[in-house]
């Protein structure tokens, strides 16, 4: 009975049920959202893999970009008063 797994007519029945449940107007929007999510996941995974392979400069990695911009920021001047 389960020897062949899913047959083509099984997939057709599943597709019809999905269309009936979600409606034909929501399916393109859902597919678009799923595609966008998959692209984001893929790019983040690629970025993480690139970060793991790239050598890290300890000074720039440990200091946030906002504190590296200039020495005389408003926060430092306000604290001295």
Write up this protein.
- By secondary structure, this protein is an all-alpha fold.
- It contains 5 helices and no strands.
- The chain has helices at 8-22, 26-53, 58-62, 65-68, 74-80.
- The radius of gyration is 26 Å and the shape is elongated.
- The model has no long low-confidence stretch (mean pLDDT 75).
Set down the secondary structure blueprint.
Blueprint: H1 8-22, H2 26-53, H3 58-62, H4 65-68, H5 74-80
Shape: elongated
Tally of alpha and pi helices: 5
Number of strands: 0
Q: Label the structural class.
A: mainly alpha
Portion of residues in beta strands equals: under 5%
Residue stretches low in confidence (pLDDT < 50, at least 5 long) are: none
Q: State the order of secondary-structure elements, H for helix, E for strand.
A: HHHHH
In helices, the fraction of residues equals over 70%
CA-CA gap between termini: 81 Å
Mean pLDDT: 75
Rg, nearest Å: 26 Å
Q: Mind describing the biggest β-sheet?
A: none
Which key features would you list for this structure?
81 residues, mainly alpha, 5 helices, 73% helix
Nutshell version of this structure?
This protein has 81 residues and is an all-alpha fold. It has helices at 8-22, 26-53, 58-62, 65-68, 74-80.
């Amino acid at each position: 009975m389960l020897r062949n797994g899913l047959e083509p007519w099984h997939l057709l029945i599943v597709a019809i049920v999905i269309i009936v449940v979600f409606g034909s107007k929501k399916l393109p929007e859902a597919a678009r959202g799923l595609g966008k999510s998959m692209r984001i996941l893929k790019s983040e995974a690629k970025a993480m893999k690139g970060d793991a392979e790239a050598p890290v400069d300890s000074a720039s990695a440990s200091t946030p970009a906002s504190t590296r911009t200039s020495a005389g920021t408003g926060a430092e001047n306000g604290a001295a008063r």
